[in-house]
Structures are given as C-alpha cells and as structure tokens.
Amino acid sequence: MGKRLTLYIVIAMIAGIATGYTLNVSYPAGNKQLADIADLLKLLPEVFLHLIKMIIAPLILATLVTGIASMGDSSALGRIGGRALAWFITASLISISLGLVLVNLFQPGVGLNITSATPVGDLATADFTIRHFVLEVFPTSALDAMAKNNVLQVLVFSVFAGVGLSAMGEEGAPLVRGAEALATLMLTITDYVMRFAPFAVFGALSSVIATRGVGIILTYGVFAGEFYIALMLLWVILMSFAAIFLGGKRVIMLARYIREPLLLAFSTASSESALPKLFEQLDRFGVPRRISGFVLPLGYSFNLDGSMIYTSFATLFIAQAYNVELSAGQQIAMLLTLMVTSKGIAGVPRASLVVIAATLTQFGLPVEGVALLLGVDTFLDMGRAATNVVGNAVATSVITKWEGMLQLPMDPDAPEALPPHDTPEHGRRGLHLDPEA
C-alpha cells in the first residue's frame, strides 16, 4: 500500500496543481465564485483532518500502555530500559531543539500571510507561565481528557496505567492484551484514513493554488529543501555521538550494515517496514537479539528522531504562515510538549501529522494549517522514516556497547540468515566480544 499511496499522492499533487492553476487563471482575483469553489475543495483536507484527530487519543493510550507494560520488572531489564530512555530523551531534545533553531533561522513560512478561518486560541497569544503549563499536564478525569483529545493528559494517564499494569503481572495481562488489540485496531484505522490522503492532497493544493497562484509551489520547494538540510545535520550529530561511544571505524561499519533497511524505509516512507531487516542487520553488526529485541521496539515508540525534528519544524512553519508570533517561552513550552506528545506514536507513514495536529490544538494554533503540509508530506515522510531508522540503529548499538555486549561483526553482504548472537547455534562466535568494546 505504501508505494501505491505515494504514487496516488503524486498524481493527486499534479492534478491539484493543474486544477488550482486552471481555476486561478479562469477567475479574477477576489471573485466570489472562485472563493466558493476553493472553499468546497478545502472540504476534502478538512474531512481528512477530522479523521486524523479521531484516532489521536486512543492511539496514544494504546501504544504507551502496551510499551510500558511490556518492559517487565527485572533488574537487567530496568537497567537497559533506563539507559535506553536516557538516550531517547537526549536524542529527543536534540532533534526537537534542532528543528526549532533551524525553522527560526530559515523562516520558511514567513511571508505567506495566511488568514485562519477559525480564531487562534489563547495559549498561542498569551504570556506563557509554568503554572499554566503544569496544570494542563495533569488530568482530573481520564475520560474527559480522551473526550477533549487533550494529548498531554492522555499521556499522563497512559504512563500511570502502563506502570500499574506492569506491577500487576499476570493479573493485568488481559488488559495489556486489550491494549495491544486496541493499538492494532488504531493502526488499522490509520491505514484506512491514509487511503483518503490523495483526495486531501488534491483538495489542499487545488484550493491554495486557486486562490494564491502557483507561486506558493516555490514556498513548498524551499520548505522541503530546508527540512532535508535539517535532517542531514541531525544525521551528522547522531553519527558523531555514535562515534564517541563506538569508535570511528565501527560507525562507518554501522552505516554500511544499515543501508538496506534505510533505503527500504526511505522508499516506502515507513520506518516500520524496515524493522525486520534492521533486526537482521544489527544481528550481523554484533548486537545480541536479547538487546535489540527490547530496545528496537521501545525505540519505535519512543525514539523517532526524524519525526520529532519534523514536528517542531512543521509546527513553527505553520505558526509563521499564519503570522502567529511565539515568544521564546512559548517555544520552550512547545518543545516540552513535543517531547511528550511525540512518544508512543508508532513509526507508520505520516503518523507525524497526528502529533502536529495535536500540538496545534494544544497551543491554539490553526489546525487547518496541517493542510499546508499535505502536498509535500509524503516526500518529507521518506526522509523522516530513514532518519528514524538511523536514530534507532545508533541507539541500539550504543546501548549494546554501554552494556559491554557488542560482538564482532559479520559480513553484511553474506546471503545466509543469522541466528541471534546469544543462542547456541552461533557457536564460538557468540562467545567473542568486540575487542573495542
């Protein structure tokens, strides 16, 4: 579905540009009939956004509860989990901060001067206070938080529920299985919703170009180019940190080992599609399966570096496009919010739109601004997915080295499948550690 959806979105983009251009040259500027047609076309992305918002709360609840409850309570698991979360939090801060810094530097949305069809919320224009932010985090009712799509409060409840179910052990197993089933259901619904994305792209592009002309396309190109510059800088930072822990030669080897899952994620715009191949290649690189089997799934929920830099970059782009000034304090609040809301979102195509829509709602920014991203989101998602793979490969390798369990690598081009390093089938190789470890 991934490749076909990308093709359909490309077709929808071309059709939307052509339709919008035709309408723009067929009617004079400010014509009421043109405005009515554009408003009708905007209905398509608006329906898509309603569907996206529909899945926010249950998706976050299910994925976080499942991820936390599956951690277990052994000392080794707790130590590895603690180190993994420490790395994830650090990577999150770097990714989101880099996105905020670069979007303020590049200012890709400045000059668009788009007017919101709905009022901008109080939080986006009021002075930020720590008291307001803290009180907004904690729910008085889990059901009320779910009903209002208050993502921060849903996350707080999910953390408590996940930790509680983990402590309950077998008694809580039925609820954990229920959360897993709910997560699967939400991801299935997400797949259905994404099938409507080409129509939303067509409506968004044709509506914008009909009223604003083809010059808006240049802005899309600038936005996409500047975002890929941000991704390249993030890759350099991640690999530099990896070199500190693994050594320069081993980092170059890691890049060679993960090239196939990276290309798979890029071509399908889904980091999840690369997970089986990433497991195999990390086996070959020298990571025992008992480490990768825990850290990688955890990373796919908590360590989506590409998605996180995109959420901050895109959210500030929308604020700039709608001429909403955000102070340094408000941007710090947004960074903290994204630190939380970006957790628990599975690495599925265009899942970042869920986080962006939720953050826009949380800060009173125009949710309709997501429509500005739909035209290029599929191409940006390719870079995000590849970056997520790089980030999780680096995190798993570093944590393995941190545990003193990194083993000697094998030929990444060897055709045979390898068993996990910590199993008897691996013979003597399972007993050898990397001399640099």
Structural class by helix and strand composition? mainly alpha
Distance between the termini: 41 Å
What are the low-pLDDT stretches, counting only 5+ consecutive residues below 50?
118-129, 414-437
Strand content: under 5%
- Compute the number of helices: 19
Description:
The protein has helices at residues 2-26, 32-41, 43-69, 75-106, 122-125, 130-137, 142-147, 151-168, 173-194, 197-212, 216-246, 248-257, 259-268, 275-285, 289-302, 305-321, 328-341, 352-362, 371-402. The longest helix has 32 residues, at 75-106. The radius of gyration is 22 Å and the shape is globular. The chain has 19 helices and no strands. With 437 residues, it is mainly alpha-helical. Helix 2 (32-41) runs antiparallel to helix 10 (197-212), helix 4 (75-106) packs across helix 15 and helix 11 (216-246) packs across helix 12 (248-257).
Question: What are the SSEs and their pairings?
Answer:
Elements: H1 2-26, H2 32-41, H3 43-69, H4 75-106, H5 122-125, H6 130-137, H7 142-147, H8 151-168, H9 173-194, H10 197-212, H11 216-246, H12 248-257, H13 259-268, H14 275-285, H15 289-302, H16 305-321, H17 328-341, H18 352-362, H19 371-402
Helix pairs in contact: 1-10, 2-10, 3-8, 3-9, 3-10, 3-18, 4-11, 4-15, 4-16, 4-17, 4-19, 10-19, 11-12, 11-16, 11-19, 13-19, 14-15, 15-19, 16-18, 16-19
